[in-house]
Structure formats: structure tokens, C-alpha cells
Amino acid sequence: MSAAFSIISPSRLEARLESDLVTVVDVREEREYEELGHIPGAVSVPADRFRDPSSVADGELPAPGEFATLLSEAGIDRTDDLVAYGDDGGPLAARFLLTAAVYGHEGSLFLVDGGLDAWLADADRSHATASPSPAPTDYEATLRDDAPLIDREGVEAAVEGDAVVVDTRTAAEYEQSRIPGAVHLEWTDLLADGRLRGEDALEDLLAERGITRDERIVLYCNTARRLSHTFVTLRHLGYEAVEFYEGSLTDWVRAEAPEWDPVELQAQVRHYAANGGFEAMVDDLGEDVLGRLKLIGLYHQKQRGYFMLRTRAPGGRLTAEQARTIGEVANEFARAPAEYGGPEQNPVFGDGYLDATTRQDIQMHWIEIADIAEIWDRYDAVGLSTMQACGNSVRNVVGCPAAGLDPDETVDIEPVVERVSQRFLGDRHYANLPRKFKVSVTGCCEDCARSGIQDLGLTPARKDGREGFVARVGGGLSDGPRVASDIDLFVEPEQVDDLVAALADLFIDHGSYLDTAVNRLRFLVAEFGPEKFREELESYADFAFEEPDETLTMDYRGDHVGVHEQADGRSYVGLNVPTGRMGGDEFAELSELANDLGDGEVRLTPNQNILVPHLANDDLAALLEEPLLERYSPDPGPFTRGIVTCTGREFCNYGIIETKNRAIRWARELDDWAEEAGIADDHEAIRVHMSGCSASCAQPQLGDFGLRGEVYRDDYDSGRAADLGLGGDLGNDEFIDWLVGKIPIDDVPAVVKATMCAYDADSEAGESFTEWTRHTSNADLREIITERPARDAPAIGTEVS
Amino acid sequence: MSGTDPSKATNVPKPGVPREGVKGVGEDPREQDRDAAEAPGKIWFRDLDEAVIEADRCIQCASCVAACPSDSIGIDEDEGRPTLVKMCTGCSRCWDFCPRSGLRYERHLELTREERGLEQPATYAARADDTAAEAGQDGGVVTALLAELIEAGELDGAVVAREREDEPLRGEAVLATSREDLLEAGGSIYNQTMGLGKIDELLAEADLETDDPDLALVGTPCMVQGATALDRYDHEPADPIALTVALMCTRSFEHDRLLARLESFDVDPEAVDGLDISDGTLRAVDADGDALLEADVDAFDAAGLRGCDECADFVGEAADISVGSVGSPDGSTTAVVRTEAGESAWNRAASALETTAIDSPDALEGLAEWNRRRAESILPRAFDREGSIGITYEHHREAYDGTDREPEPLNPARVHQYEEWC
Ligand SMILES: Cc1cc2nc3c(=O)[nH]c(=O)nc-3n(C[C@H](O)[C@H](O)[C@H](O)COP(=O)(O)OP(=O)(O)OC[C@H]3O[C@@H](n4cnc5c(N)ncnc54)[C@H](O)[C@@H]3O)c2cc1C
Ligand code: SF4
Ligand code: SF4
Ligand code: SF4
């Protein structure tokens, strides 16, 4: 490209201004240009006019016509020498020059070193407020054939070795993710005190990174802004072969990079199972492979070299054979090595156990890479998968666990769940969404698949006599909980997988791949607003949107514990699995029972419980006699029934408190107390949801009591603690408010008791716990909670405390 | 109790009074549109970030890095400041141990004095033998002391500072395990190294024979505050620290700005072999020991860490041993031995040092007193040696809002939140 780039000092600019040889362009906001003043004679071409600020994801170049109009209005001719400045240290002004060059500007292009600040640093200079009113020109912009733009394939080739790829972002961003093989040169490295460094220093910096005049150089950042500054600087220094990747990292990450292909990844891991295991894998593929393994259901535990394996059960359904396989695998492979306690690793569960989760998955720990191929072989034989159980993909589809059983059901969701699962399983495109993507489908009228906390939640609805679903979008618990919005959209069962695809496509296009803090779908829903979101979604769908005539959800069901009649007259039994944890051998045993007594099916519920369906009367009686049901009872005490926890400190890097054993201990103690206090029969379930930290894995926002791990400290001691909130109720779209922080952990049972007593004494007849918490003021609730007995000194520093 | 919708909240924000359930000063998109109110007193890294780091008050002591139980805080290599590298669970520990926010450091100093201080701290003027004195900043006392202790098997190593190879005058934390290492690391580095936050990493690289090493930690008083505070609560990161040595300090510097200042005096930073600040004068010397610059240290004010203005702990009261130049002749180090651990280390190394007791350390106390008065005049909150050790977010906001040290909104692009489990 022919236009010459240079960086010009404010004093040289001053000299040139006097001879009126250049057009000066101010890229700040128009308001700043007008109100705060500008370099005398400058015209305003605000950056938000030649970049699209609303989107971090799209390409940044404006359409040539728009750019031409902009320059024409500013009175610029193609042959003018242009000097650009801003107040952001350079990138936006550089961006302007780059854009002009790409569209064929012929005059020379200058960037003001240090921008407006540097100009103003000299007290003799000042702002002007008088704006020139230039006569429009007939500026023409066409993309140059030899514009230094490079596309994804070009970058791939560059990565293969025919160019130096340069990351111009911060070191932290570079550490987080980068194009493989890129060297790091933050754009500000070229500056000292906001001004361009001396030429020798610059040459050293560049040479150290292998950036030389003989090499082709490819620049990228996130949004093609920062790279512009580096581009201009390199051209100023006389580097000719400089190109830039307009799509930048955003595009790179989004594209179907081979290392993010779940199928490919699984094949790689299988290879290491037989060839060197964990260490060889990490040596060859780098530590960051550990992050990608989530895509195939493997989470690296805090104990190095060991993984949590998550197995998905779409809609919670497992055949008895699948369940037996899972139980056997857990029993055999989910075993802690001696250094972590071996057979006594857990005081309550010993070893070889598994966890049922709130999303109808099964998790087990201590899995080693060396064993994984064997496990997958066994899974393949019975049709199980761990793929996309985690990671930024369409996760396990949650379904009403009583689907096909419930007498009031309107739509059988099984085929729907199956179709959605199959459509996205192993699909490389959808395996790499900006963030995780959760879908649930409910066929009964009791929303037992919790539509309110899903990215897409479907509940039954009718339209012109047709049965289908109404969609809610953008719910979720972590990072600022939000109840999903109803977008008044009716879909037929056959359209559901298309809807999920449309939503995923929208998410891919609009979601940010980089700011992981704010990229759950719900931020898009909040940004667009439900109506606009619906419109946008419709443009992605290949069917016309309709509104439902009537929605059928009447109520919200917390769990399925107990014996229930099925539509066909047989029964299903919901077994309570406190905290979802169960021995692998027990799970296998249960699957045998389901095989012998039921129809060979086991279901997982979103409460970490298990359901055995299709029991004729005799079989039901036989099942209820089984000793296994003493521990996993269909008729547990209210606290045991209501307890939900996440993994906690035992295995989780983040967990601050141990959850599972503690919860089981508490539930027993509290049930005994409830019995003594005479309140046990008043409550089916008292739902204590405990998360090990403030991530929401145990869904504390939905509990009667929501707890999340914390620490506390006073002048002399510190210890583990919990934040407490009361009265979550998904049936009424209520999340708890966090009422009190940092309750020393051992005080929690006493607080629960005091609260239950207060409810017992204060509530009006027939008032539910949630209703009571809602009509009692937060101040009063706080007082109930904090009037607690003196605590014992906390135990600190123990391994699992 | 309904979900809190900030837009419907009736209580309009007042300075210093954070609204219930709505925290922080920046526009964290996660905080908008949330349907559950936050717990009172809940603190996230973001709050620390806004109140300390974005507010340009961070003194780079790395206490937060060491304190975080999930290792969520890393060090931004360029800025030398803490930055979030993984999901924050909101446990508040970083805040609790940050001497610029949740840790009332003066209370901590008082408590450590009560709990660990000798009846009568001893002050000496000391000088090591020639090699150590040559390598050291003043009397080479730290270098010699640590070398003796390592050679005697009392310590397995010491976390000290060395000039980086790639940038003039910029220090980095290193683990010295021999006399040679220490000689190489002798002399003062006038910027922070975040050594307290790097102990794990340094140990992993060092391959020591023992799994349960005893280390000395050398650093500015603020770093020693963080280290000893973690130790008071038996927190794991302090486990390897067996001895703390504080370098008496009125301020530390921001590396980039220090270089820029030097350049403004036409001094080429590459040519500077050593810096020294004493008696209000900053001296830069070249490799031959010739002075390149002697200037009033006030001229370097703008290069100092702004958070240092709030520091009243010139001597490093929490340390087992504190060292400085004030009050001793050129070529000697003033050392204050304050605890039993310090005393036994000092005695062990005595044969390598020429020492004279200083009975009334007037110069030292004078400077400490001046420093304390200055800090108290700048510190927006009350300086209270008897107050409770923890400072809540709300109290911090009450004291700091409306001052030029108030929290600054976080730049969300700086926060990379990773998610792991759910
Ligand atoms: C930022 C700073 C400001 C200071 N201000 C004063 C002052 O105002 N008045 C005063 O009397 N004394 C001050 N000192 C202390 C003084 O400069 C000497 O460090 C002290 O007298 C010890 O000298 P020495 O010869 O015995 O130590 P040496 O034998 O030189 O040993 C010093 C040890 O400290 C380590 N070290 C040096 N700098 C750092 C650092 N930044 N972080 C961690 N470790 C480090 C070195 O690696 C070495 O191991 C300051 C020191 C620093 C680092
Ligand atoms: S998790 Fe780490 S960063 Fe977050 S509050 Fe706790 S200590 Fe601070
Ligand atoms: S002052 Fe220390 S503890 Fe506080 S933020 Fe800075 S490095 Fe962390
Ligand atoms: S003056 Fe205080 S805060 Fe600053 S570096 Fe020294 S000890 Fe730390």
C-alpha cells in the first residue's frame, strides 16, 4: 500500500500547521471536540462513526460508502496529507489512518505522538473552539486490492511459520488466550510516558521478539483498535511487510479452531491413556489443554493429575444397563490414591462414590487419564457420553423426570430432549459458544425442570388446540442471578431443536467471547430487552414465530420423593439421595433393582435424587422392602429430603467449605431436632441448599435456606463461615436475598432451628415458609438469624473443615 | 422479600453509604439486572480492585495474592499489580489482609508487638565483613545475616530482590539459597517485587530438598505486615516464613515513573548501577561508583507509590528484624531486633557482624515520628492502634468517599473471570 505513515511530534505539527499543509483530524467524541476544544483548524471525525462501537465481535471496518461520506463531509480530499489525534494514547487516531489507507487514501498519513495530551503539554499551545466549516468533497473510497488485511486462513498460514504473529494486547490478556505461537508486544510497550520511545529502544524491543524488517509481520488484538497503533508505529519505523488481522482474536476464538473440536480432543486423550497418561498429555499439549478437557466432561481436580468426570443423562434418563455401568465405573475407578486417603478418603462415603447433580448429570472423582479410554469404551458399549457435559456448549438438556409417567402431562418430552441432545452432541460449531448454554424442557404442569434458571426453558403451552411449549430465555444463577424472561413464543415439539440452534447462532453472533464475566446469554436478553430479543431471534429461526394461546404451568414442584401413581396405573418411586452422593456399588445395585422390578429404567431428578419408574404393585412392595431404601428413602425427614449441595472444598479449587459430609451430618441432626420439636410432620421438605463458595452450583438462591461458603475473621481468630439467605421459591420466581454474611459455619444449624421456631410461632395458618419470609421484613429476619447462641472457637486450618 | 431491582430501589445512593445489595462504584454489568440482593459485608476482588488498585493506592505488597484461598489473584507483570486471573468466590480474604483496605495495619502492629515483641527491642549499628558490605546497600548486614543462617542450616533460603536482567533498576523477587545468591542480590531496589505473592512459585522452581522449608522474607514494612498478619491466623501461605526482615521505608517507587524521572535529569537508567536514598537525597551512581545524580528526593515525589503516603510504619514494626541506614554512619546498617526469632537469628550471625549497640536511637525515632505524623495527616480514615483489626467495606467507603483516594470504577475489560465448575 502506497500511503506513507509517520508519527509526528506536536512541535513539528505546529510548524506544519503554520504552513497549512495538512488536514488535522480529531477522532474524539463530537461533544468533546465541540465543548472542550481541539487543535486549531482540526476537523471532527469521531471514532464511533468509523467503527461500530455496539459490537465487540464484528469486523471493525466501516462500509466504504459510509467512510467516503464521512471524509467528504469533513472536507477531505484523497490526496490530502492527514494528521490524526485523539486522547486515548493513539489507537483510535491510528485506526482512522489505517482505515483511510485501506480505502485508498493517497496523501501521507501522520499520527500525533502523544495525542492531544502531548499537544497541550506545552503551555503555549491551547485549544481552539472555533470549528472550520469545510466544503464537502467528492471523496471516493474503495478497498485497495493490496490492503494489508489478512484473514483467518492467512493467519493460520502465518502460524505455520511464514510470518511473525504479534499480540498487541496486555500481558494478562495474552496469558489468558492467544493465537498459538504469537509473540507478545503490548502496544503501550512502544511508549514511555505516553510518547513514542526512542528509536534504539524500539528497535531493541522489536528485535527481542523476532520482529525484523525481513519478516512478514501480522498484528492482532481483540477489536482491531490497539493493533492500529502498533501498525502505524511499525510503518513509521520503516517496516514494510506489516499486515493486520481484522477479525482479531475474537474471530479466531470463535472459528472452529481444531483444538476445540470435542471429537478430536477425545481422540487425543484416548491416545494419552495408553501413551504416558497425564504428564505426557500436558507436556505435549500444554497446561491449557486442561481447560479444554471440560468439553469432553473432564474437569481437572485441585489434586493434580486427577479429574472429575461428568456423565450426561439427557432428561435425567438412564437405562438400568447404563446406570449399572456408571455405578461399576465409579466403584472401580473413582478411587483416591493412598496419599489422599485411599479407601478412607471420605469419612462418610469411603471411596468409589458418585454424585448426582442438579442438572441430571453424574459426577465422579479421581479419574486418571490412564483409565479414561477404558471408561469410554464401556460407556460407548451402552450408549453413554461425557461429551459436552461441561464447557461452553449446549449442556445436558434437563427434562422433567416424570416425563411419560405423570398423569397430567401434556407433551411427552422424551423425543424432544433426545432430538436436541443428538443435534448438538459432538457438533464442533456449537461446542464453542461464548459461554455455557443450558436448556430445559418440561412436559408436566409443575415446571419441575426449572425453566426460570435456564438460558432456554420450555414449559407446556397450547396454540389453536396444538400442544407445544412456551419459551423463556436468559435465566441463570451465577454472576448476578436473573429469572428468565417470557418472550411469548410458542413452539411445537418438532421445532424445539431448531429454536435451540437459532438461539445458539444468535449467541455466537452477539455474545462476547472475551469478556467471560458478562457473556451468559442473559446479558444479551437484558441488553436487547425481551421484545427486541424475540425479534432478533426470529431472524435466526427458520420458522415463523407464534404466541401461545394459553400456558399450562400451574405450580412448581420441588422434588419427586415418595411413591406416586403413573398415568398407566403403575407407580414410580422417588428416592431421596441426600446431597446426591451414593456409592458406585449402591448405584449399580439400584439399577439391578430397577431392572428386576421395574422396566429397566432409572431417572435422575434436578434435586440430586433418583426415581425408579414402572412398578406394578407387587414390585413396588418388594422395592420398598429393600435394605438400600433405608439409606435412600422415599420417606425421609424434612431436612434430609431438602438438602442440596455442590462438590465443595473436598474436590473443588474454589470451595471454601466442605459441603457434602457436613450437610448429611446437619440433616440428620436437624431431622432429630424437628422430630423432638414436633415440627417434622408439618413439613414435607425443608430445603437447605449449600454451595461451597459463591458460585451457584448448589442453587442456593432457590432454597428455603440458601448458604454459600465464606470465611470470617475477628481480631484473634478466623474460620470458615457461610452467607445465609431465606425463602427462595422458583414457583414464584423468587430468589433469596442474601440476608446475613459470614455466620461461623458451626452456628448454622442453630440459626436454622431458630428460624424454623420463629416461623412456627409467627406464621399465619397455612402460610408457607417462603410466604412467611416474604411478609416478614428483612430487618426482622436478620434479627432472628443473628440472635444466635455464643459459638465455640472455630476449628481452623484442618484439611476438610 | 422480593428480588432487588436496582432501578426500582428507592434509596438513592449517597456518598459513603453503599446501598443494600448494590456494591461497588463501577458499572459492573453483572450487578445490573440481578434478582437477588447481595449479603451485607460481602466483598469481592472487584471491591478491592476499585478501592485500592484502581484508586491508585496499591502498595504492591502482594498480601492479597498470598491471601486468596483459590489462587484467583495473579500479578500483572507489566504493572506489577494484583489482577484477577480466575473466578473470585467473594470470600473477602484479599480485602481482609490488604493493608490499604481491610487490614487495620496499625492495630496489627500493636497486636504483634503485644504477642511477639521482646520486652526491650535492641537497636544496633552494624557492619558485615568486606565482601558482604561491598555487596550490600549500607553495612551489608542483611546479606551477611542471611548467609550465616543459611550456612548454619537455620534457613533453607531467603526471598530477596534482584535487578532484572531485561530492565534497568527494576527488581524481581528471587529465592536465595546460598551466600553467592545473596551477594548477588545485595543492595536496595526501590520498587516492589511482590515477593510475598511469589513464594509458592519460587519454591516450586527452586527444588529444595525439604518439603517443609524455613525461609526468611525480606521486604518493605507493608509486605511484612501482610506476611505476619497471615501468620497470626495460621494461614498456609505464611507457613514457610520463619523470619521476617523489614527494610525501613518512607516510600517505594513505581518503576516506570522512576525511570522517567531519572531521564528527566538526563540520567540514562542503563548507566545507573545503584540508587540510594538517605537524608532526603537521592543518589544515583554508575558502575565505577561515580555519582550520576544527587537530587532532593522530593523531586521524585511523583514517582512514588501514592499508597505509601498512607503508611506510618517506617520501621517495619511487625518484622523480627528491621534494617535501615538512618542513624548509623555511612557504610553501616541500623538494625532493630524485635522478637525472639529475631534475637536468636541475630545472635547466631553475630560473629559475622561488627556491632555497636545504639542506646538511644534518636535519629531513627525522629524519622519514624515524622513519617507517622505525615501519614496520619494524609490517611483518610482514623489511625487507631486500638481499633478492631478489620475494616469493613462500608467503613472504608465512609472514610474515603469524597476524598481524592476514593474508589475508582473498575475497568471491566481488566477482569477475566474464569468459570470452572458450574
Ligand atoms: C524501597 C526502599 C526504601 C527505603 N527507604 C529507606 C529510608 O528511607 N531510610 C532508611 O534508613 N533505609 C531505607 N531503606 C533501607 C536501606 O536502603 C537498606 O535496605 C537497609 O539499610 C539494609 O542495608 P544492608 O546493606 O544491611 O542490606 P543488604 O545487605 O543490601 O541487603 C538488603 C536485602 O534486601 C533485599 N531487597 C532490596 N530491596 C528490596 C525490595 N524492594 N524488596 C524486597 N527485598 C529487597 C536485597 O535483595 C537484599 O537481600 C529502604 C529500602 C527500600 C527497599
Ligand atoms: S476469592 Fe480471592 S479474590 Fe475473591 S474475595 Fe476471596 S481472596 Fe479475594
Ligand atoms: S496494597 Fe497489597 S494487598 Fe492491597 S491490593 Fe495492593 S498488593 Fe494487594
Ligand atoms: S512506605 Fe510503607 S507502604 Fe510504602 S513501600 Fe514503604 S512500607 Fe510499603
UniProtKB/TrEMBL annotation, chain B:
Residue limits of the 4Fe-4S ferredoxin-type domain? Answer: 49-78, 80-108
Pfam families the UniProt entry points to:
Fer4_21, FrhB_FdhB_C, FrhB_FdhB_N
Compositional bias segments (type: Polar residues): 1-10
User: Which stretch is the leader sequence?
Assistant: none
Q: In what ranges is there compositional bias, type Basic and acidic residues?
A: 20-37
Renumbered residue ranges of the record's region Disordered: 1-41
GO molecular function annotation: oxidoreductase activity, acting on CH or CH2 groups, with an iron-sulfur protein as acceptor
Entries under InterPro entries matching the protein:
4Fe4S_Fe-S-bd, 4Fe4S_Fe_S_CS, Co_F420_Hydgase/DH_bsu_N, FRHB/FDHB/HCAR-like, FrhB_FdhB_C
Protein name per its UniProtKB record: Coenzyme F420 hydrogenase/dehydrogenase subunit beta domain-containing protein
Species of the source: Natrinema versiforme JCM 10478
